[in-house]
Amino acid sequence: MNGSRPEAIVPLPAATIVLAREREGKLQVLLLLRSGQSSFMAGKYVFPGGQVEAADTNADFWRRHVDMRPDRISRRIGGDMADEQAVAAAIAAIRETFEESGVLLARRHGHSGGELHTVFDRRLAGELPRGWLQRLVQKEGWIIELSRLFRWSRWVTPEQMRHRYDARFFLARMPDDQVCLPDMQETVNALWIGPEEALHKNLSGKVPLSPPTLVTLHELLAHTRLQNLEDAAARRRWGRPLKPRLVTDGDEKMIVEPWDPEYRRLQIRIDVADLHAGLAPVGTSFSRLWLSGGIWKPVKC
Fold it and tell me: Is the pTM of this model over 0.70?
């Protein structure tokens, strides 16, 4: 049976950054563990990101404080949305990444950086005020580095979920001179890890992944080096939004991805025996995710 709702909740715009680096010739990405008290993906490892806020949408302001001209913004991170929306998504992704991980994709222009230290301190104290990023770029001339961002994917939360987001997943190289420090409120642990290792540890329950994170890590298996990944990302477009379906039957839950053969069927049955038999080893194709023992496990196409 499908756990349908009378009226689907309208998804809110959101943005995420897949931060990547290379260590000893191997690709790693940053995963953050969301607090068990979080209202969304509690206790799961995710990429840093969050909801687009009103201040992020002030395109006229942000265009004066970013490192790309409007025409380049459109070519680099636009596509299926207006330039104003692209800027808002990128600003939200960069702001949220700092708030959750302490990594700021920006550079200082001719100032001492004292305001940034204040922002760091307030962040760790849980007192980061709204509008901190606007004040930072205004007072100390920081430039937001949109040029670091590449398009990767767009995910829309299933209709049956209580919190829904229309999230743009960006990809960016981790700055060499920065370190990650979770805020210990929304995020309680940070982990640099290779995609294959993360997928194996998800199956063992050591690194429980959110569904979009799991799918994205599977996509990253095709790229073993950071430059190779960036070259591939530079050619990506947003494409059609990915809208997985959540299927429920009693206590059983399953996510059906848009490429599943039965995605458009009105009714999709959950057969636990079939799910057990169809579990997909790391690196093999899958089109469903089964919530088993609190872990989302991929199931073969």
Answer: yes
